Amino acid sequence: MQVDFGGGEEVLFERRARAGVITLNRPAALNALTHSMVKAMGRALAAWQAEEEVRVVLIRGEGRAFCAGGDILAVYEAGRAGRPPVAFFADEYRLNAAIARFPKPYVSLIDGVVMGGGVGVSAHGSHRVMTGKALFAMPEVGIGFFPDVGASHLLSRLAGHYGMYLALTGERIGQGEALGAGLATHAVDSQDLADLTGEIAESGDPDAALKARHRPVPRDRDAATLAAIERHFRHPTLEACIDSLSRAAATGDVFAGETLRTIASRSPTSLHVAFRALRQGAVLSMEACMRMEYRIVNRMLANPDFYEGIRAALIDRTKAPAWQPASLDAVQAAAIDAYFAPLPEGELAL
Length: 350
What we know:
Blueprint: E1 2-3, E2 11-16, E3 19-24, H1 35-50, E4 56-61, E5 65-67, H2 72-80, H3 86-100, E6 106-110, E7 113-115, H4 117-120, E8 127-130, E9 135-137, H5 151-154, H6 162-169, H7 175-181, E10 186-187, H8 193-203, H9 206-213, H10 223-233, H11 238-250, H12 254-264, H13 268-281, H14 286-300, H15 304-315, H16 333-340
């Protein structure tokens, strides 16, 4: 039975047996989130939390992606027109927090790309199911932004400082690596998703169905690489992490050299902000992280690097952004402090 919570055709809602099913339905845009989609999903969760008949919520994406993130071009155009869409981020962060505290099983069926805002509507739920087509990334530092949608809470809690590595590089990982890191809770075959959805909807309990269909998938990175990630990204300052990588690269360490080159292509300001957000987020609740990220995004939408990064990546496609400042050591500590300062107009209400 279709249910209307708003959002038009961009996001569909269905009551199916004991489940509420959300389908992100912008396949041509890789299911990128719009403000209306975010608000509609928030209404659906509130309604389904109160309905005793709904035992579980499932979320899926139509087409070849789960969700590639927020509609970043719409954000870019609004900001360039002098109307930074702060309200979009406020509602998106409220939705992320609502998913994290949702009292019923929330099952994300990730069969394709999951990045940025897609991570925010999937990774904070109780069950994160990935197929072999899954591709996870938080690539924001490459466009002059920062890993948001609760990444300061999520990534900071991954073992071996793996989340810091993902945040500072924007590296893409697949099903096995996500499972090994703890970003996914289950790995299933893509062709099983339709049957799995039906089984969970009928029972209202995802655990038995997932136990039967889950299969072990090895990590892509070997033990030596994981140890190197922990060694280089465990340090209390960004400068110390870079120094550790630099010293290893000087000895011919291929992983360190490649990682350094990747980081060097990212926005220096974004790198500093991301590093601090994850360090602080490691000791904060999810809701405190969302308030911190809301402080950051209010300032980030006024940061020239964001508009330069989008221009280079998506508008002109030069892939050669001119960051301001252009180097890590040119970024002033006071400038980074300002991103984290309390908002004069008030904090995010959750």
